[in-house]
Write a structure and sequence with these properties.
The protein has 261 residues and is α/β, with parallel strands linked by helices. The chain has 2 domains: 131 residues, 3-Layer(aba) Sandwich (Cobalt-precorrin-4 Transmethylase, domain 1); 122 residues, Methyltransferase, Cobalt-precorrin-4 Transmethylase, Domain 2 (2-Layer Sandwich), CATH 3.30.950.10. The protein is built from 10 helices and 12 strands. The strands form 3 sheets. A 5-stranded parallel sheet has the order 3-2-6-1-7, sandwiched between helices. A 5-stranded mixed sheet has the order 8-9-12-10-11, sandwiched between helices. A two-stranded antiparallel ribbon has the order 4-5. Helix 7 links the parallel strand 8 and strand 9. The protein is globular, with a radius of gyration of 20 Å. It starts with a helix and ends with a helix. It binds S-adenosyl-L-homocysteine. The site of S-adenosyl-L-homocysteine has 24 residues, from helix 6 and strand 12.
Length: 261
């Protein structure tokens, strides 16, 4: 059966994107196969698409009828201040546009989606959030690292490694003490400090660790190492953004799952 036919058999009743409404949608980690049908439908309906750098051009291209607004930001460097993005969303909605605000991953996971939603609420603009696969889960999946495994971990921590506001900075020592795996977003720039704090809290140097770079994209790469050699491995392997840092016993399952042990 074709994909089109399979979708038709779902008998979906697509949610309708009304003029003057804003949908905050997640595009997933990159691979168009990770899109949800709701987000695909949003792209088909939008007449204004406001998107980030982390969204793949293939996905943006689906909304061929929409006017595109690129508000890219990467690695914590804002090319367009958040206030201007908020103002753009409000302006487009007030003009009666059907607005889709498309972000990488999940809009409510380290994506400032909630900040934008708060502004829209204050401005009385109707909005809804549409899930996307967050890069931690998309990345672990494509790297063959299980997020949980009985006997290994009973929890998994998603943390930001880059906090512009000090209140958002994770308490690394407290996270280390849980003994649970940690997936770090935006972790490259402050990696040395993060590793030092985790080590100081007693996380052993031989704790398995990995970088998952460009997860789910054609140029995806996984570099496995350990907490004690994480910083050196990043330099040696020239790990670039976007990349996730995964720390914990789940990483060592990868080799076994791939038949390398
Ligand atoms: N809302 C997004 C996260 C935005 S923060 C989500 O839910 O995934 C940006 C960080 O996400 C990057 O610094 C990187 O750590 C991670 N990231 C996003 N896409 C990625 C990808 N394809 N591969 C690896 N990491 C990715």
């Amino acid at each position: 059966m074709s994909l089109e036919k399979a979708i038709a058999r779902l008998n979906l009743e697509p949610k309708v994107l009304e003029p003057g409404h804003v949908w905050l949608a997640g595009a997933g980690p990159g691979d168009p196969g990770c899109l949800t049908l709701d987000v695909l439908s949003a792209l088909a309906q939008a007449d204004a698409l406001v998107h980030d750098a982390l969204v793949s051009p293939k996905i943006v291209a689906v909304a061929e009828q929409a006017e595109k607004f690129f508000v890219g930001k990467r690695g914590g460097r804002l090319s367009i201040p958040q206030g201007e993005i908020n103002a753009l969303l409000v302006k487009l909605a007030r003009e009666g546009r059907k607005v889709v605000r498309l972000k990488g991953g999940h809009p409510f996971v380290f994506g400032r989606g909630a900040e934008e939603a708060l502004v829209l609420t204050r401005e009385n603009i109707p909005w809804r959030a549409l899930s996307g696969i967050t890069s931690a889960f998309g990345g672990l999946t494509s790297a063959n690292i299980p997020a949980t495994m009985r006997g290994v971990n009973g929890a998994i921590i998603l943390a930001t490694g880059f906090a512009a506001v000090s209140d958002d900075r994770p308490d690394w020592a407290a996270l280390a003490r849980t003994g649970q795996p940690i997936v770090i977003y935006m972790g490259l720039t402050q990696m040395a400090d993060t590793v030092a704090e985790l080590r100081a809290a007693g996380l052993p140097a031989d704790t398995p660790a990995a970088f998952v770079e460009n997860a789910s994209m054609p140029q995806e790469r996984t570099v496995t190492t350990s907490l004690g050699t994480l910083v050196e491995a990043a330099a040696l392997e020239k790990v670039v953004s976007p990349s996730l840092i995964v720390i914990g016993g789940i990483v060592s399952l990868r080799a076994e799952l791939m038949g390398q042990k």
